Amino acid sequence: MKTNVHTNSSIGEQKKGSRGRLLVKCPDRPGIVAAISKFLYEHQANIIESNQYSNNPQGGTFFIRVEFDCPRLAELAEEMEEDFEQLAAEFAMEYQFTYAEERKRTAIFVSKEPHCLLELLWEWQSGDLPTDIALVISNHENARAMVEALGIPFYYIPANKEIRKQVEEEQIRLLKEHQVDVIVLARYMQILTADFVSHFPNQIINIHHSFLPAFIGARPYERAYERGVKLIGATSHYVTNDLDEGPIIEQDIERVTHRDQVSELKKIGQSIERRVLARAVKWHLEDRVIVHENKTIIFH
After folding, report:
1. Is pLDDT of 14 > 60?
2. Comparing C-alpha atoms, which of 196, 116, 125 is closest to residue 164?
3. Rounded to the nearest 5°, which phi and psi values hold at 181?
4. What Å distances lie between residue 291 and 24, 238, 241, CA to CA?
5. pLDDT in tens, 52-69
6. N or C end: fewer C-beta atoms under 10 angstroms in the chain?
7. Is 287 marked active-site?
8. For 147-201, what is each residue's pLDDT tens digit?
9. Is 227 exposed, middle or buried (0-12, 13-18, 19+ CB in 10 A)?
10. Which residues have a Cβ under 8 Å from the Cβ of 131 and sit 6 or more positions away?
């Protein structure tokens, strides 16, 4: 297996702080945890948090997330990553080093409904969303005032299927220009093409109601009400070329009754969407998610 090394930014002049994270995926076998622990100890790192999982101890895949503290991380990070290559080759690891002070840069896409955007902005303002919001892109002007009031660049780009190629070219240009690491679709009601998605593998996070596939298409709450559903919810997932079928990051539900009208179902649904999306984005930003095939391993 080829070893993959990814870092959020180049090592050297950037400030690393003292907190680092290591995510590993590899064939399961004895000695993996011991080898990683020994490696970090030999590089003057103290393990703060460690979570691991095996989907089958006999021939399955092993996953681990380690958060560590290293007072000399700024000067040792490059050497640490280079030295880890030998250990990774021995265990056929796919791995990723990240650094807590290198905050990911986020772009938020939104359409008319602002509830998910507002939740993310509030979490960001309160310090609970560890990211730099680089820009907001929308196919409507509704959210401009609330975004620009916080000093965040807002880009209005009208979108429909007739001009989708030109729209996505402009969006990709802006995302590259702003050096974006993660894209959040906060109720962005446009379908992304395979070409767009291919530029950002496992970097686009979406939210949708959990009626799917039962009430796919327009007016899902109206049709759910007519059907008399007893549970409604929301799902946050990574975007792939298969519409609404990417790896699931987080889900939640609430019980409803025959007394809840369509307007009440929508309010309840929006509340679930807000918290589910915020949790999913936060876990991604904290490097708590490992994607394996079409599933996710979440280390809370």
Report:
1. no
2. 196
3. -100, -30
4. 11, 9, 15
5. 999 998 989 999 999 999
6. C
7. no
8. 999 999 999 999 988 899 999 999 999 999 999 999 999 999 999 999 999 999 9
9. exposed
10. 103, 104, 105, 106, 124, 182, 281, 285
DSSP code for 200 = S
Question: What pTM did the predictor assign?
Answer: 0.92
**What's the mean pLDDT in 92-108?**
97
Torsion of CA 218, 206, 122, 50, to 10 degrees: 150
Q: Catalytic: which of 128, 244, 252, 260? A: 244
Q: Show the domains of the chain with their CATH numbers.
A: 19-99 (3.30.70.260), 104-298 (3.40.50.170)
Burial of 81 (0-12, 13-18, 19+ CB in 10 A): middle
Q: How far lies 120's CA from each of 26, 103, 140, 284, in Å?
A: 34, 16, 18, 13
Residue 89 tokens, joined:
């080759």
